[in-house]
Write a structure and sequence with these properties.
Layout lengths: L1 H40 L10 H9 L10 H30 L12 H37 L2 E12 L11 E8 L5 E7 L13 E7 L2 E7 L5 H26 L7
Helix pairs in contact: 1-3, 4-5
Length: 261
């Protein structure tokens, strides 16, 4: 059980570190990207007194205003405000846990009954979160397996890859691929999908990808590289560990611990 607590502590602090690093890196990248684009647009067009931002304003009906909307800034600084502490405390927890080695049986235990009940409630809250996530991930897994078993597959050809202008609810600036495939009946179906952040060599114009579609409605289709059963099973294992670890922690603090004043 000491080894389980040790590994659980490493996993928890590791997750905190990874999430903190991701949020911090994303926030810094977004901040510097926004400032870089704005500074670039403020450079003068050779031979004129106008800037690139002026030209952009004439084409789009208005100059780019760095502070026109507060939401992007709130998101960027919110990512930093959350990410930096998570990264700091996650790394500190990892270093302390590794230096301390395996925990003692009573390490971290509260010294009063009220304290143990409080700790037990914290563990129960963690267990509830793990159970909630595990339950809905199981439902998603069943739905995914059912969809896979009822799907037919076809090779799709990528016609065009281009950045989105933000229409039709798409994220502006991200790359999207237009593709088409044929059903067993010879019907040609066209689709569009966001190009993954780490695309394979098949994501080029003329490249071929495999899509699964419902025979009753081929417009319901999905690239087969988007998800796999393994992704769901890994999440189920993580949430299951959180559920069981929370239940064990609650039991240890509330029921198995000696009564104190």
């Amino acid at each position: 059980m000491r080894l389980f607590r040790y590994l659980l502590s490493l996993v928890a602090n590791g997750i905190m570190t990874v999430v903190g690093a991701f949020l911090t890196g994303t926030g810094i990248f977004a901040l510097f990207s926004t400032l870089s684009v704005y500074l670039y647009l403020e450079t003068s067009i050779p031979g004129t007194d106008a800037t690139l931002n002026d030209a952009l304003g004439m084409a789009n009906g208005g100059r780019m205003d760095l502070f026109a909307e507060a939401e992007p800034w709130l998101i960027m600084f919110g990512q930093l405000a959350v990410g930096v502490p998570l990264l700091f405390f996650g790394l500190r927890g990892l270093v302390r846990r590794i230096k301390a080695g395996l925990p003692d049986e009573d390490e971290g235990a509260a010294e009063t009954s009220a304290g143990r009940i409080g700790q037990g409630l914290v563990y129960l809250a963690g267990s509830a979160v793990g159970g909630y996530l595990m339950f809905f991930t199981l439902l998603d897994t069943v739905d995914f397996i059912d969809h896979q078993s009822n799907s037919l597959y076809s090779e799709a050809v990528i016609e065009r890859i281009a950045k989105s202008d933000g229409s039709n609810g798409e994220a502006p600036g991200l790359r999207y691929a237009d593709f088409y495939f044929q059903t067993q009946e010879g019907e040609t179906v066209r689709g569009r999908m966001q190009v993954p952040f780490n695309p394979g060599k098949e994501f080029v114009e003329g490249g071929k990808i495999v899509v699964g579609f419902l025979p009753s409605d081929p417009s319901v289709h999905e690239w087969q590289g988007l998800r796999s059963v393994d992704d769901y099973l890994i999440n189920i294992a993580i949430y299951g560990a959180l559920l069981l670890g929370g239940l064990w922690g609650a039991y240890r603090n509330v029921f198995a611990a000696p009564r104190m004043a």
